[in-house]
Each structure stands twice: as C-alpha cells, then as structure tokens.
Amino acid sequence: MDCLFCKIIDKQIPAEIVYEDDLVLAFKDISPQAPFHALVIPKKHIATLNDITEEDRAVVGHMVMVAGKIANEQGFAEAGYRTVFNCNQDGGQTVYHIHLHVLGGKAMGWPPYQETLKQPIN
Ligand code: 5GP
Ligand code: ZN
C-alpha cells in the first residue's frame, strides 16, 4: 500500500520515534506547530476516522492513552496540551492514515479556524 505512515511503520522512511509498541507508533511531526508536536498512529492502516470499526475500539483507545503517556514524559501533562484528529478535507487531513496530533509546550489557541473561513449564520 502506498501510504506514507505505513512506510514509517515499516521503517522504510525515517522518523524520530518517541514511543512504539505492538499496536501503535508515535513520532515527531516533520513540521512542528508547537514546541513539541508528535503523531500517534495505529500500526493497522485505517484511512480516516470515518473508517474506524468496532474492532478498532481498543487500538483507538490505546492511541489516546499513549498521547497522555507522552505528555507526561515530556513534562507538560499538568500544564496542558492539545490532541487533534483531523478528518477529511474540511478537517484539514493531509495524510490518509489516522493520526492523533499531540501538541504541547506552550498555550494553544482556539478556535481552530480562520475568521475568513467563517460562514454567516442565517
Ligand atoms: P494532517 O494534516 O493529516 O492532520 O497531519 C499530517 C501531519 O503529518 C502534518 O502535521 C505533517 O507535518 C506530518 N507529516 C507529513 N509528512 C511527514 C513525514 O514524512 N514525516 C513526519 N514525521 N511527519 C510528516
Ligand atoms: Zn497507512
């Protein structure tokens, strides 16, 4: 399968790995949007959040647990951090293998869209 993140799992493409076990891999984002920015991905290829099935319940739950573990190890768990799943075009997804962004090390902004993209409410 021609998937960038599957290639990172198979170690065909290098990445700075911060956590790995049988179910998931976590590595630093190549274009960090915060002082710390990693991606937690399942080793099973799942294209989008819309493709998660009942059999993926455990691995997706585990991804969230691992995000918390990484935040703890990085030392910003108590200060706070941001976790994000982007889904499809409007969600801003660019790599079609689900990934949980873990961003920390400074206060995050909200809301996650630009004024110019706001639609008028009728
Ligand atoms: P998305 O936009 O799909 O939610 O997030 C994809 C993320 O993958 C982006 O933050 C992007 O910087 C990151 N990314 C894209 N290509 C690579 C790569 O080859 N290596 C790593 N480590 N991150 C990547
Ligand atoms: Zn994949």
Helix and strand topology:
Blueprint: H1 4-9, E1 17-20, E2 24-28, E3 36-42, H2 57-74, E4 81-84, H3 88-91, E5 100-104
Antiparallel strand pairs: 1-2, 2-3, 3-5, 4-5
The structure holds guanosine-5'-monophosphate and zinc ion.
What's this, in brief?
With 122 residues, this protein is an alpha+beta fold. The protein is built from 3 helices and 5 strands, in the order αβββαβαβ.
Structure in words:
By secondary structure, the protein is of the alpha+beta class. Helices cover 23% and strands 20% of the residues. The chain has 3 helices and 5 strands. It has helices at 4-9, 57-74, 88-91, and strands at 17-20, 24-28, 36-42, 81-84, 100-104. A 5-stranded antiparallel β-sheet has the order 1-2-3-5-4, with helices on one face. The mean pLDDT is 95. Bound molecules: guanosine-5'-monophosphate and zinc ion.
Tell me the number of helical segments per DSSP (H or I, 4 or more residues long).
3
What is the radius of gyration? Answer: 15 Å
Low-pLDDT runs of 5+ residues are: none
Into which percent range does the helicity of residues fall?
A: 10-25%
Largest sheet: 5 strands, antiparallel
List the defining traits of the structure above.
single chain, 122 residues, alpha+beta, 3 helices, 5 strands, globular, binds guanosine-5'-monophosphate
